[in-house]
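Supplementary material to the annual report.
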Amino acid sequence: MVTIKASYTKMLETLGKNLPIEELDRLLSFAKSEIDEYVEEEDMLVIDVKTSNRPDLWIPEGMIREIKGIWGEEKGIPKLELKESDYKVIVDPKLSKSRPFIACAIAKNVTLTDYNIKQLMQLSEKIDHSYGRRRKRSSIGMYNLSMIKSPIEYKVIDKNHKFIPLGYTEPQYLETILETHEKGKEFGYIVKGYGHYPILLSADGLTLSMPPIINSNDVGRVTEETTDMLIEVTGTHLGTVHVVLNILCQTLGDLGAELYNVTIEYPKEILDKTIVTPTIEYEEIKINLKEVNKYLGTKLKPKKVEEVLNKRRFDVKKIEKDMMTVLIPPYRTDILHWVDIAEEIAIGLDYNKMGPTKWKVLTTGGLLPETESENIVRDILVGTGAIEVITNTLTDPEILTANVNIEEDNFVKISNPVSKNYSVIRNMIFPNLINVLSKNTHETYPQIIFEVGEIVKLEEGRTWTQTNAAYMLADTETSFEDAHKVLDQMMKLLETDYNLIETEHPSFIRGRCAEIQVNGKTCGIIGEVNPEVLEKNQIWMPTVGFEIELPLIPSLECKKKYTY
Amino acid sequence: MNNDKESIFLPPEAILIYKIISEKKELEINELENISKLSRGKIEYNLPFLQKHDLLDRKERINKYCSLTKEGEEAEKNQLIERRIYNLIKEKKKVSFAQLGDFIKADKKELNAGVGLLRKLDAITIEKGEISIKLPEKDINLELQQYLTKIKKEKVSYSDKISPLVKRGLVNVIEEKQSFLIIKVPYSKIKSRIKELIEVGRLSSNMLRDGSWRKTQLKAYNLKGQPPTYFVGRKQPYARFIDTVKQKLVALGFQEMRGPIVELEFWNFDALFQAQDHPAREWSDVYRVSNPKHGKLPKEEYVTNVQQAHENGYNTGSKGWRYKWDPKKSSRLVLRAQGTSVSARTLVGLKIPSKYFSISRCYRPDTVDATHLSEFNQVEGIVVDPSITFRDLLGILETFALDVAGAEECTFKPDYYPFTEPSVELSVVDPNLGRIEFGGAGIFRPEVTKPFGIDAPVIAWGLGIDRLFMVKYGITDIRELFSHKMEWLRSTKMV
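Predicted assembly:
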């Protein structure tokens, strides 16, 4: 999801209609967007664009393009007039292994209001961040054309090169920019990975920018006074830089700019050819109407499909019986398969008008045997008067170790936790229950709780998920047999013979703690909780309890779920 | 009371109470509790014996006393608004109406009310928006101010003088019911006639066996008293809600499926056609496991097919994502970030036709607050049949909206998931809360299904039940779903 901000009145102006927020929101759904918030005092709409695959929608012009199509005000692929220019970019062969591709265009007579500049910056930032994979795959630069002389050089430059980066007053070494400039610190790792410095230079030696880090403070500053701009996209993937430039050109065209192309001269190490950008070519995709109708559950005729696709800003080039050749707008990158066109048709028809059809897949439903088994255990424990709790499986390591007097930390740890409180996956449940008791010392006793829930185990590099059941009882007077009698009755109801084998466990009192064994295999622990543990958790009541691993109870059908 | 000389039989505790009240002539029941050291229940049990013999009377009185509201507390601390305004004007001589707010921190409504009050008291004049003093050196509403202080400090009975404060919402009137016991015949007068009554409290097993229960009188209980606190064993409210959702899905013919919490990126992302550099796969969007970092990929055939789907579309006719797919990335271990990974696993050897669902714990690196959890439940599922269409999908969603959410109406919107096409968002219209997003769905892209040898369309759907539960139970803080609060666990309504 991508969130953008836009002016409500400016959007209505461009749409040429006065629409209430609700209606605008409804129309925006055709552009896979929705209004998240409207800040009336600032005339600001916060719009969530749900698709990460449609960078063309990350500016109001893109959404409006879609709405005008739905209204039928504009049909098919928007036309974009391109004029020739003498501008040329020469690409350095040394860039072949780092950031080899560039695409440029010129936009003249642009009316750059403060709002338009902000919108273009927002679009660039969002594209750089998301579609450009944080500038790694592609990044955008915009410049004041009047200061640039052709041919422009896109080259690798010596580290002793200096220029004034945006927001600075003095020239800085490239290395210094990477170390000290805000953008250098954020994106410097990309350039460091290249092992050399890419730079864009005007024919007279003036620095345009160091892609993908930062523009220069003079040429690379676009203001309300700027009328003619150079737009440039560099990156590691040719298709990506071309389509990103197409999106920018379409947007600037919609804003009323005159667009000119730029010639890119590649060395043979990269492409061995010259490309004139932007490359406004319409890609084709063939669809079989029979397949589409079967997929959607519709009975559409070619004529209707063409009409709907025109609404979605596509052109239909050819219709031969059921085969249709569809032209894709050059700013769209998301059409991979005919199912993508099928979706466009469905959206154009309006989901709410297609008419849901009734169920026809008749199957027998059922719970998994392991869920049924878990439910049996839950029913037994509820019957003992215990109250079920659900605790977090993603928890604090302290809860699983220090709080219950345990040293081993044989549980799955997260390498990127947001907070220590949620940084490991539990390998047992009873410590969570002790934590619950510690939070309720002001409530009346007895407190009898249980949880039947998932845990994750880690053994010899393998991990699996399984279900355990844990039970805890805290009261002014309680002892081992209060837990034992519950376990005993549960095991009887589960037709399971078990033995208690005295053991030592740091969470429980010595001599009042046992392993629960079934068929000679340890499947759980029972005991009176160690006063040290109670004191640590500020539970001032004797506490007893047990935990069993349900997959080890033969009469139940709980299974270990291995990850691999 | 009858005048004869007959004995009056009273239980020992009733005699004790009788003596105490006789001494005081009149006694409030709480005081009796203090003096007698008997519980309220015991007192209530014994009083009827005394009343029956017309030894005392019981009268209820309602006592009204005052307490400060939140606004009252503020007015007590900062002075009443009219006093603040009056004092300000006294100090500044003249203040423009518009500027009042600059000097006095209070909302506009309150300021207006203050000025209104002063005008009514004829204490100020307003000319061309300038306020000045008319009555010099007057202590405006001093008495009311003093009442506020008094109420804060002690228990003040309600009187008409306080009514302006009540009307202004500064003071609440609290009604307290008091029971007074008034002696009609003092103990000393009939002392000789009072006899102790021996009663039996409990019926015993022995009394039943030897028949002695026939000769014994069992004490009558006060049936109006509060019983001791008691909590039944019960299922956690949210767990129970999940059980009912499962029940509904099973009734609709869905088979349950489950998967592991620690998941391979392969199942969580790659099999679902999410490109390896897709932003949703970043560090900030999915929890990664640090020990071990990698797992073993499934059967090579599937891995190769998925790889091709990403690189060139496999045999689907898709262009694919056109990049070099890295098996190492795919074998990274993460915490299941979306329930769809369970559906992805089910694609192996999928029966056609079939319908599946899972309710699974999913994990995202969000900062935990009232609207975000680091772990949450997702309801997900698939429906597969060679004849199924997008309009059938809309039909399935409609059923979920009506049968599972209990809504009266639902709407659809285009949506985006990397693994479905078309994708749709489902909103339901709740009679009380309006439109809420309830789910999402779509038809799995061929790049998702074909690598597992599936040729039929597979509908994938998901429902947001955390949200639904919160709406139904009026919960505003999502953390309550995993609440530790015993009070909530014990006492949340079940219906």
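Chain B has 20 helices and 17 strands.
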